[in-house]
Amino acid sequence: MTTATHAGQAVYSASFLNIYDLWVHGVSNRVLWRCPTERLVAHYDQHVSGSHLDVGVGTGLLLDRCTFPSTNPRIVLCDLNENSLAHCAERIARYNPSTVRADVLQPLPAALPPGSFDSVGLNYLLHCLPGDIPGGKWAAFDSLKAALSPEGVLFGSTILGAGISPNLAAQGVLKLYNSRGIFGNDHDDLTTLRAELERRFTRVNIEVVGLVALFTARR
Prior knowledge:
Elements: H1 3-10, H2 14-32, H3 37-47, E1 51-55, H4 61-65, E2 74-79, H5 82-91, E3 98-101, E4 117-123, H6 139-147, E5 148-159, H7 168-179, H8 190-198, E6 203-209, E7 212-218
Parallel strand pairs: 1-2, 1-4, 2-3, 4-5
Antiparallel strand pairs: 5-7, 6-7
């Protein structure tokens, strides 16, 4: 991994993953970010395919709860953190997923060949990437676009840190997370997100729910 991307993933220890769903999906999404987890699951239901790459997998809750269009989907999990990969793979073991450890800001490894996925999920990862690295966090879109099949869709969500109206609790948490490098979204706003997606994709759609931008992009 690069030094720049270390802090955002370092918090995902095995012990933290055991309480992640309670804190993030049970409390933060509803109270702080004002985007219920059910909305994220619905986003997956709408766009996930039978040949899916998931990047920044967390605990795998969304993959566990979403509905795939086939009973035997091909799922590849990609993350920098080995704990997250192991936790997610165990949770959705019924799908027999493959795992790849990789830094999304670097060229994708040979295990993720170009054009090999009909959908790529990027949920709650962008706001964890540092915002001041050369080339920017948005370089992740370049690597993931390459992994898509010609008719494939990149979809996901990210917590905005600028141009928003957080409540007092959310303000405090955003400040704390950014100061510790857990988040790097101080300057992530809707205009920038849209511009960076439209630089790389021909069809882009973004919906903002609370502080969360849910996006889709097609080649």
